[in-house]
Amino acid sequence: MTLPNGCSINTDALDQNADTQVLLEKDAVPPQCCSARLNLAILMFFGFSMVYGLRVNLSVAMVAMVNTTDPGGGTNATVDPACPFPPGQENGSRALRQPDGTPQYPWDSETQGWLLGSFFFGYLLTQIPGGYLAGHYGGKVFLGLGVFGTAVLTLLTPVAAGLGSHWLFALRALEGFGEGVTFPAMMAMWARWAPPLERSRLITLSGSGASFGAFLALPLTGYICEKLGWPAVFYLCGGAGCLWFVFWCALVSDDPRTHRRISKEESDYIINSIGAQGKRHGWSLPLLSMLLSVPLWTIIISQMCSNWSYYTLLTSLPTYMNDILHFDLQSNGFLSSLPYLGSFPVSVLSGVAADWLIERKVFSITNVRKIFTFLGLLLPAVFLIAVCYAGCSHILTVTFLTLSTSVGGISAAGVYVNQIDIAPRYAGFLLGVTNTFGTIPGVVAPIVTGYFTEDHTLAGWRKVFWVAAGINIGGAVIYTMFGSGEIQAWAVEDEERDEAERKSSRSTST
Question: Could you give the angle at the alpha carbon of 142 between the alpha carbons of 259 and 410, nearest 5°?
Fold first, then answer.
């Protein structure tokens, strides 16, 4: 299948503005239903569900792992409650009952903050090399081994905790080291698999597995902790990740050309619509041009701002539910998961809507990315500020926190897809770069939260939410001013540029 003018969407952007790219003929597009590209998105969806389940289970399990009755433990029992207990729990015991012999540890608030942030110390280190190697060799092995390695290490969590907090810190950092390659590998694969007019929906569907995984893991962790003890959480989550790896190895291919079950019609459609930008990049990269690229730095800064509030809630929301709102562990896990239940459909629908707006030429690619990013950063900030004024109202607080993370899913079709717009061939490497910077809030935010909330007061948590909201608003403004959806000149290789010039010359002469 070819485009109306005989060239791909990506290469056509060289001799005309990317915002007026030629659209594919609708009757030439093979259906998505049961297609190889949709199957890949679904497998990625479940893969990232595993990834985030493995990442967030410690956030809830930490409540069960800490000995709150120890005088030197994580929660000071002499501190007056910041808020009243939920109805029906005023006189009930909040001590967590676990199976006999389940160990607990005297970790204070600062130690817990470091343990919750430890994952991201390792996660920072492999984003860029993972994206670079995935872009050169293909992303299948890196994404698969990233999930599998993290799952195997998760099985060792109870052993590490028993040896001491330093061992657990090191294990979680090592998990992050293995998992750091997963998102860059995903983007490198979509650079070869996602037709330009389907990018938003395929990438947001696969990435929304993260929200779905957090939604499942948080309540299940609370339930398992109470019924089987917290060590069972890590055994079950690790085992599920290993099982997913078997299906990944059997069903996935790096490239449409090498897939064993893809139809020729779909393979031709993907290859021709992506064009030369779907090829692997070489060993050398235009690093100086990337370093000086304003659109790339805009993505970096905006992603860091968005991730600050996301990681703050991801790692610390169960602690807030426990220390301030005083929910029992099962309620804690369920209520902490509600924001991610909302984020999952919002992010998927935003991808569908973004592709529709681009295909119908309602807005340019640049404006679509700006609209979805602005709304996906500003609206969560509004609801975080509302949490500060909700006081001790359990219903309002849970509602605003749920809405904050839910509407944040809108940005999935904005800044989080933008790397593949500006440089499809280098999308995996660029996601590694942007995600490295975007992971810094994952390291710093839990530590800052632990510092602000050391005395377990409502005022301390208000500071946490105000800081997150302010950073979000800053990111929305920056991306609206400087964001772009056009393929950058440095992302185009010489042979593509020459071919575009020849086509332009032929069209001028005729």
Answer: 90
Q: Please report which confidence band the pLDDT of residue 75 belongs to, taking 50, 70 and 90 as the band edges.
A: very low
Q: How far apart are CA 493 and CA 137, in angstroms?
A: 18
| Contact by Cβ (8 Å): 114, 170 | no
Residue 263 carries which side chain, given as an amino acid letter?
Answer: S
Looking at residue 66, its amino acid is V
Comparing 78 with 463, the larger pLDDT belongs to: 463
The CA dihedral of 243, 244, 249, 255, to the nearest 10 degrees, is 180
Q: pLDDT tens digits for 94-124?
A: 555 667 778 888 888 778 878 887 888 888 8
User: Rounded to an integer, what distance in angstroms lies between the CA atom of residue 471 and that of residue 258?
Assistant: 44
Through-space distance between the first and last CA atoms of the chain, rounded to whole angstroms: 24
- If you search the block for the tokens 């433990």, which residue do you land on? 73
Q: Which two tokens stand for residue 386?
A: 């509302």
CA distances from 292 to 100, 234, 332 (A): 59, 43, 45
Q: What is the DSSP string of 343-394?
A: HHHHHHHHHHHHHHHHHTTSS-HHHHHHHHHHHHHHHHHHHHHHHHHHTT-H
**C-alpha 223, offset from chain centre:** 25
The one-letter amino acid at 277: Q
Helix %, strand %, coil % for the chain, to 5?
75, 0, 25
Residues 424-465 have pLDDT tens digits of 888 888 988 998 898 888 778 888 888 888 777 888 888 899
User: Residue 406 — left, alpha, or beta (φ > 0 → left; ψ -120 to 50 → alpha)?
Assistant: alpha
What does the chain come to in residues? 510
Q: What is the pLDDT of residues 247-303, one digit of tens each?
A: 999 888 888 888 888 888 888 888 888 776 656 666 778 889 999 999 999 999 999
- Distance of alpha carbon 177 from the chain centroid: 16
CB 84 within 8 A of CB 213: no
Q: SS3 for 506?
A: helix
Quick one: pLDDT at residue 505? 55
Mean pLDDT across 79-84: 64
Residue 37, Cβ neighbours under 10 Å: how many? 21
Its pTM stands at: 0.75
Q: How far apart are CA 348 and CA 131, in angstroms?
A: 24
Q: What are phi and psi of 66, to 5 degrees?
A: -90, 135
